[in-house]
Amino acid sequence: MERRLILAITLIIACTFGLQVVSQNRAVALRRESEELQATISMAEHSAQLMKQVLHFRIEANGLDGATQEGTAREADDLTDVAMNIGETVNAMRMDAPGTFDWTEQRYTFGNLDQVVAAVATGGETKHQALREVDRMLASAAHLQEQAEHRRDKAYASLERSTRQWFGRVSTIGIVTLVLAAIILWDLSCNILPALRRMHGSLRRLADGDLDLAVERFTLRELRPLAHALETFRRNALAVRDLAFTDPATGLPNRRAFIDAAARRIRDMAAPGGEFIAVFDIDRFKYVNDDYGHAVGDTLVQLIGERARAVLGDDALVARIGGDEFALYARCPAGETPAVLCSKLAAKVREPFDFDGFSIAVTISLGYVERGTVQDDAVTTLISKADLALYASKRNGRNRATGFTADLEDARNLDRMLERDLARALSSGELRMVYQPIYAVSDEASEVEALVRWRHPDLGDVSPAQFIPAAERSGRMPQLGAWIIERALSDLTQWPHLSMSINLSPLQLQQDGFVPFLLERCRMHGIQPGRVILEVTETVSIERNTRALLTLELLRNAGFRIALDDFGTGYSSLCMMKTFRFDRLKLDRSLVKDIQADATSRAVFDAAVQMARQIGAEVVAEGVSEHLLVKSASEAGCTHLQGFHLSMPVEAEAIESFYAEQAAAQNTETGGPASAAA
Ligand code: C2E
Ligand code: CA
Ligand code: CA
């Protein structure tokens, strides 16, 4: 384009310059030629005049015959006048075109006219001779006239030719210039400007983030590399966008893409109409990765994504928003509810996944929120509500779907408050320990379980079931755990006849230097590790955690006894018994409470007790809340009993008097917890 324009403009300039040169040259030549024409015209006129004058002279000379003296003198004067006129004309002709005629030639002798006049006036033979001379002059004038006219005609023709030529050249150059200008104009308006406009349009769309445009192939040489660069930029930007919006493992949209797409759908559908947002994650997905490797884990995630699509339909949005986390945006078909749809999905995912030579069964936990049930329609808000419901699903045993309710939010806010206030509670004496007696069925050994209490200045008593998880979430568990151990051990120094169960958070088992810390505290307080039973729960699966297992081994080797707490609430209790040899099993309240009423519960309870006894572990029945349970649990083979019916947790200051009263009571009746309970 640039070269084309430069060439065309150079040509126009050259043409204009050529026009100028040609015009100037021609103007000079034409002036010269017109001057010459003027001279030849003047010469022709003079020669015609000369011819007339010579003829007049001839006639006058002929008529001069000398009849009267007076008449002769007058006629001679006239002749002399004519001769003088001839002389003037000849002089004028000499001036017209000097050098055109050689006036010295014999035949041009108009110089001796006065002698001719005199000879004519003389008459006779002299006159005849003079007349012959005049005839010669006549011939000469005729010749001159002929010559002059010929020259004039030639000059005229030449001028005419030159003018035509000049006109021709000027016209040609003018036309060429016009044609060039027209071509440039056409090129500019039909090719260059539209191409520039299109390129500008492409640039604007790209700048506006429209990556779906097709960058055209330009024919203009200057635009070709630019178009190429634009196309490369567009492709790169597309790749970056895809990378930024797609989960590479599953090809599903990622969190950002989900938020954008769901927001668009919500915008397009002004009034809520059965749409819901759900989030779910794969229960214990970590174990799949640990047991089968990450490649299988990735494939599983992908397959679960496909099943979600199959259940929810093509219209639903299914996105992977985290390692094993998915988000859904779907619309309930008529007659269905989000709860039903989510349960269907959970059931579909429960079907085993076939891999090459093995199959994997997993469950998912879901949380959902229906559009229109919360005020804020923002996708991120809806996701956070669904997340709350998801955590409720997890808390309640996984493999289920929970809908968002305002209660969940209140619980979450309370959790936040607890997390925040724990630091203060630790330093301002809001925490204390209470001790719940545990009774041995067959001997007199006395034992208590240390339980922590928090009296919140605004909330009153907060359950450890609530604030221990808050401490674990907020990273305060090591600090809180250390406080509990310190307090419990220092209390235990006052009760030399008691042994004590202390609850440990799974996080403490993974804490650096926990074993030396515990040993050091026991040494400081002069307490034998054998008096301390450490209760651990199976909630964070210890059997998969080598570090926790190692800590347990170290603690046992140091002389502490280890109890598995809350047996019967999780799904892997039996596995745990295999991985680590616990000294004691504490059967959870939920296992104990129905043994009186329900035969199946009784069978499960009996089996658990039998198994524990066979591996030589003690068995504690927790939650003995009524008299009948004392008998059943003891008969089933439990070695220990604990529960509100036997004793509520006792304040530290009251422990001594509590046991004193117990001893007094035993002295009056016969001992043992069963009889105490009776
Ligand atoms: P846990 O270890 O199973 O403790 C027994 C819980 O059951 C205690 O609740 C106790 O008060 C309650 N309980 C005892 N007998 C009965 C009964 O007959 N009926 C009923 N309904 N409940 C009974 P608490 O003190 O609220 O503790 C709840 C949970 O909090 C504990 O369950 C334990 O997991 C945790 N926790 C309590 N104190 C500590 C602690 O010092 N450290 C750690 N890490 N966790 C603690
Ligand atoms: Ca316990
Ligand atoms: Ca327990």
Automatic annotation (TrEMBL):
Domain EAL: 415-663
InterPro entries with a match to the protein in the record: Cyclic-di-GMP_PDE-like, EAL_dom, EAL_sf, GGDEF_dom, HAMP_dom, Nucleotide_cyclase, Rev_trsase/Diguanyl_cyclase
Signal peptide: none
Metal-binding as UniProt keyword: no
CDD domains: EAL (cd01948), GGDEF (cd01949)
Domain GGDEF intervals: 273-406
Chain segments annotated as transmembrane: 166-188
Keyword annotations: Membrane, Transmembrane, Transmembrane helix
Occurrences of domain HAMP (ranges): 195-242
One Pfam family named in its UniProt record: EAL
Keyword Ion transport: no
Domain of life: Bacteria
Name of this protein: EAL domain-containing protein
Source organism of this protein record: Novosphingobium beihaiensis
